[in-house]
Amino acid sequence: MIYAAIIVNFAIFLIHVFVGGPAIARPMLAATDLKTVAKLTNYYCWHLVSIVLFAMGLCWIWFLADPAAREVAILATGFSVAFLVWGLVLVVWKRQRHLEMPQWILFAASAAVSIGALG
Q: From residue 86, how far is each of 38, 61, 92 by CA, in Å?
């Protein structure tokens, strides 16, 4: 199950970078109705998310290599659960459709395999 957690977390990172980048980040950078500071701050945050997603995958590799490092796997799982909950709350709060803001689906998968891997 640890391998599933590694695969799912790195898949989320790759989806964020290679699907989300062209679909979300590039159009945001090209937007002419946003001020430069707001645009670049959001772009900065985009990369912070990329770093966190990559680190979540690394946490699982660390745990695989050293089962005594269970805390890093718990941290990655906590992030998955928190991102799942926030994704669901945001959709309801801002009255969006769940399939228009599908990030929660990825984190539901991550949370499920991560909780399973922790046993």
A: 22, 25, 10
Is the distance from CB of 110 to CB of 9 less than 8 angstroms?
Answer: yes
8, 107 contact by CB (below 8 A): no
Which DSSP string do the residues of 83-94 spell out, in sequence order? HHHHHHHHHHHT
For the chain, the farthest-separated pair of C-alpha atoms sits apart, in whole angstroms, at: 50
7-41 per-position pLDDT tens digit: 999 999 999 999 999 999 999 999 999 999 999 99
- What's the pLDDT score for residue 117? 97
State the Cα–Cα distance between residues 32 and 51, nearest whole angstrom: 27
The reported pLDDT for the residue numbered 105 is 97
> Closest Cα to residue 9, out of 107, 117, 83?
107
Task: Count H helices and E strands in the chain, helices first.
Answer: 5, 0
Whether the Cβ atoms of residue 49 and residue 12 lie closer than 8 Å to each other: no
Q: How far apart are CA 24 and CA 20, in angstroms?
A: 5
